[in-house]
Amino acid sequence: MRVRSVTPEGLVDELIERIAKIAEPDGWTRVAVDGAPAAGPDRLAEALVDPLRALGHEVLHVRTGDFLRPRSVRFEFGRTDPDAYYEGWFDEAGLRREVLDPLGPGGTGRVLPTLWDPVRDRATRAGYLTLPPGAVLLVSGDLLLGSGLPFELAAHLVMSPAALARHTPPELAWTLPAYARYAAEVAPQTFADLVAKVDDARHPAIMSVD
Q: SUPFAM superfamilies, alphabetically (predicted)?
């Protein structure tokens, strides 16, 4: 495994370059930015928006936190069950139906940017948006890879178990076994298009197999 140190800005530039290479003017480009909250996937995805727009792409950033299942489903086995978090909090079917499939081959481009408000525990009632061909979709969040969700490019932010535990707020420490299970069972670092180690967000490193 080869590790190449970059700056945070260099990581953004690397992702922009890779997205630009595969972006099709007559279709949509769906990009996953995957990682535990402590790794900052939402922050990285947000940093990609303006540079992509500067290249002439319309961009939509969708967060998995807006595609959770209702509270009755998420908390069926309690509020802090890591297996339930791993297997059932994220509404993958909703994300596929409302966002990913409409931006796939033969899609309409008509997407729903948010689906569920987990605080109020009700639908967000967001309006649909129509993205033109050439647009880029950024989906950020955790536990995104390995279940067959369709992406043209997948980036995975990885942290060592010690760093992940250190940077995860105490009230969310119960989720750590879910990320350990994800790393062991899915191993996204073995197939993601770009893997970045972010134990220290100020000094990321891009990992690749020689």
A: P-loop containing nucleoside triphosphate hydrolases (SSF52540)
Structural tokens at position 63: 């967060």
Q: What is the pLDDT of residues 1-60, one digit of tens each?
A: 688 999 999 999 999 999 999 998 999 999 999 999 999 999 999 999 999 999 999 999
Distance CA(114)–CA(177), nearest Å, equals 27
Q: Alpha-carbon distance 116 to 13, whole Å? A: 32
The span from the CA of 208 to the CA of 11, in Å, is 14
The mean pLDDT value of the chain amounts to: 95
- Whose CA is closest to 176, among 78, 67, 43, 38? 38
134: left (phi over 0), alpha (psi -120 to 50) or beta: left
The type of residue at 29 is T
Phi, psi of 57 (to 5 degrees): -95, 135
Structure tokens belonging to residue 201: 């967000």
The DSSP 8-state label assigned to residue 68 in this structure reads B
Query: What separation in angstroms does the CA of 120 have from each of 30, 66, 74, 96, 140?
Result: 29, 12, 14, 23, 22
| pLDDT tens figures, 53-103 | 999 999 999 999 999 999 999 999 899 999 999 999 999 999 999 999 999
| Alpha-carbon gap, residue 74 to 83, rounded angstroms | 11
Identify the residue whose tokens are 């760093």.
163
